[in-house]
Specification:
- The structure holds two protein chains of two kinds.
- Chain A is an all-beta fold.
- In chain A, about 0% of the residues lie in helices and about 75% in strands.
- Chain A contains no helices and eight strands.
- Chain A has strands spanning about 1-10, 10-15, 20-25, 30-35, 35-45, 50-55, 60-65, 70-80.
- In chain A, the strands form two sheets. Chain A has a five-stranded antiparallel sheet, with no helix packed on it. A three-stranded antiparallel sheet of chain A has the order 2-3-4, with no helix packed on it.
- In chain A, strand 3 and strand 4 form a beta hairpin.
- By secondary structure, chain B is an alpha+beta fold.
- Chain B has three domains: about 1-170, Reverse transcriptase/Diguanylate cyclase domain (Alpha-Beta Plaits, 2-Layer Sandwich); about 180-250, 5' to 3' exonuclease, C-terminal subdomain (DNA polymerase, domain 1, Orthogonal Bundle), CATH 1.10.150; about 255-390, DNA polymerase, Y-family, little finger domain (Dna Ligase, domain 1, 2-Layer Sandwich).
- Chain B has helices at about 15-25, 50-55, 60-70, 80-95, 120-135, 150-160, 170-180, 190-200, 215-235, 240, 245, 265-285, 320-330, 360-380, and strands spanning about 10-15, 35, 45, 75, 100-105, 105-110, 145-150, 165-170, 255-265, 290-300, 305-315, 340-350, 350.
- In chain B, a hairpin with a 2-residue loop joins strand 5 and strand 6 (about 105-110).
- The chains are: A mainly beta, B alpha+beta.
- The interface of A and B includes residues 2, 36, 38, 43 and 60 of A.
Chain lengths: ~80, ~425
């Protein structure tokens, strides 16, 4: 199941062409190296444009959210087996 | 039949909701996944292909699904992401061919008549679609592509094809296929109609040809006798033919249903739920700059259903007005005798506001200014940012897309 986190994170990445690809993020002082981006979605919450990235770190999926207006990143959810 | 007359494709993403969750999460791939509307729900709204192999079906109770597939993993649906993925699919299709009709959240018809010089072989085009979907959405996302010379047959082709394949129905294999499939593979024939046909000894579409026009008309009436005759011959049904006419037409109605977690006997909660659904429906109607003059409500619970509607001589375009009609005039005029678990509201006979005459009543204009102000806030900060004080403690039911995608025009699809 996905565990709700909803905490601010710092993200570093690269632009491949015109597409941003997150490569690593820092959550609670710990650095997470992204191995794979498995799904990217653009959603709207009212006028807020959000880009959702599902990324894999050591076999675990993390759901990251980028607010395209405020340019802020949040870790929304983490997959927990069991 | 010439090969180049095979120009209608039906693309159907395999186990859409579950497949996207598996694409997102490698830990779910190859495992039985049951998608729930939200955590804590007791109904499986979609299943992965692995769960389907064990007998899990859409709409099945979670307890039954877990009995069939004890290893079932349940995951909450991500409706906003499904809608975005459908938009991406639409972009893939329209980049390849000019005539695309999104039929539901995970299905589309593509007519390649106008680009047959680019794609002389429909099967090659079908495989191109499959590869582009994988490239855009991920390796785990597979689809069936059905090919034929009309929509009915191309949809049947994708229904009966094995997962991740391209299948063609031609004039030469059409009858054999119509004689070998059941009605569940035929678009437009629901459970009740299929059961009625079975009572007549008709178990497959080709069998309809053995019924006379009189038998069909007597048993099924004027509309369905014609539809069934066309289906038996493998011709487009009326409902599939009409898709072209709907392309540039605005929506005729907007509605919203919602199933609660448990039966409700609280008048306060029923009122709040109806207000919640009314707000969402009217926001959509206003955003499309429409107004309607037929309003209705349906309530279900304890195996019973009550519904009522009213056709007005004027058009409604304000949330408070719609709620007043639905709640005060329809609901409160009914003596409730069962607890409620499912709620539905709708407004229909929609017309563009620009085509309607403006009222001179000052109160209407005051309400319009209030609604316009709320629309502006909603547009910027989201639905339910502004709500009545009576709703402050109520957990708002958020908008969600349905698999059928009935409000596709609202979503610009």
């Amino acid at each position: 199941m996905y565990q709700r986190i909803d905490e601010k994170i710092m993200v570093a990445g690269v632009y491949a062409g015109r597409v941003f690809q997150p490569k690593r993020f820092k959550w609670s002082s710990k650095l997470y190296e992204i191995e794979e981006i498995t799904l990217v979605s653009d959603v709207k919450d009212g006028g807020r444009k959000l880009r959702l990235y599902s990324v894999v770190v050591k076999g675990t999926v993390y759901r990251l959210c980028f607010d395209r207006d405020s340019e802020a990143w949040r870790l929304e959810e983490v997959w927990f087996e069991g | 039949m010439k090969a180049n007359s095979l120009r209608i494709l039906h693309v159907d993403i395999n186990s859409y909701f579950a497949t996207l969750l598996q694409q997102e999460n490698p830990a779910l791939r190859g495992r039985s996944v049951g998608v729930l509307k939200s955590a804590g729900r007791s109904c499986v709204i979609a299943a992965s292909k692995e769960a389907k192999k064990k007998g899990v079906t859409t709409g099945m109770l979670l307890s039954e699904a877990k009995r069939l597939a004890p290893d079932l993993i349940t995951v909450a649906a991500e409706f906003d992401r499904y809608l975005d993925t459908t938009r991406r699919l639409n972009k893939i299709f329209t980049n390849l061919a000019p005539s695309v009709h999104i039929f539901s959240l995970d299905e589309a018809f593509i007519d390649i008549s106008d680009c047959m010089c680019l794609y002389p072989e429909a099967e090659v085009f079908g495989r191109l679609i499959q590869s582009q979907i994988k490239a855009e959405l991920g390796e785990w996302v597979t689809c069936n592509v059905g090919i034929s010379y009309n929509r009915l047959l191309s949809k049947i082709a994708s229904e009966i094809a094995p997962p991740n394949s391209v299948f063609t129905i031609t004039e030469s294999n059409k009858d054999a296929i119509l004689a070998s499939i059941t009605f569940k593979d035929v678009c437009g024939i629901g459970y009740a109609l299929g059961a009625k046909l079975e009572q007549l000894g008709i178990t497959h579409p080709y069998g309809i040809n053995f019924l006379s026009d009189v038998e069909l008309a007597t048993t099924f009436g004027p509309f369905w006798s014609g539809e069934l005759r066309r289906i038996g011959r493998g011709e487009n049904s009326k409902s599939l033919s009409l898709l072209d006419e709907q392309i540039d037409k605005p929506m005729k109605s907007a509605g919203r249903t919602s199933t609660a977690y448990s039966l409700c006997d609280s008048e306060v909660e029923i009122k709040q739920t109806l207000y919640n659904l009314t707000t969402e429906v009217m926001y959509k109607v206003r955003k499309m700059q429409m107004a309607g003059r037929q309003v209705g409500i349906s309530l279900w619970g304890e195996g019973k259903k009550w519904s009522d509607h009213r056709t007005l001589s004027y058009y409604v375009s304000h949330t408070q007005e719609l709620f007043h009609l639905l709640y005060h005039q329809l609901y409160l005029s009914w003596v409730r005798h069962f607890k409620i678990i499912r709620y539905g509201v709708f407004i229909s006979q929609l017309q563009p506001v620009a085509q309607l005459s403006t009222t001179l009543l000052p109160e209407w204009h005051r309400q319009e200014r209030v609604n316009q102000a709320i629309d502006e806030v909603t547009e910027k900060y989201g639905l339910f940012t502004i709500k009545p004080a009576t709703m402050l403690r109520f957990k708002m039911i958020r908008p969600e897309v349905t698999g059928y995608l009935g409000d596709k025009k609202y979503y610009g699809l």
